[in-house]
């Protein structure tokens, strides 16, 4: 599950709220061990996702860098190259 959490800082355009929430959901899923919580745990699970989303957004908003923003397409191509080396070409 954690492999779905992507770096969100220093991209142009910046990470969207949906991307931050998706990363937060993956993080809470990993911590809890639940893909989808039971009805008894659903409220706590959703609250955790909300709180992690707020904290993650606050972190992203407060970080600073002098580096040039990364391009999403370039990063995607780099990931494809790494995967081809790791798993072989399909």
Brief write-up:
62% of the residues lie in helices and 4% in strands. With 90 residues, the protein is mainly alpha-helical.
Order of H and E elements: EHHEH
Largest sheet: 2 strands, parallel
Strand order of the largest sheet: 1-2
Q: How far is it from the N-terminal to the C-terminal residue, by CA?
A: 23 Å
- Globular, elongated, flat, extended or rod-shaped: what is the shape? flat
User: Stretches where pLDDT falls below 50 for ≥5 residues?
Assistant: none
**How big is the Rg?**
16 Å
Give the helix tally. 3
Structural class: mainly alpha
Average pLDDT reading: 90
- Tell how many strands the DSSP assignment holds: 2
Query: How much of the polypeptide forms β-strand, as a percent range?
Result: under 5%
- Estimate percent helicity: 55-70%
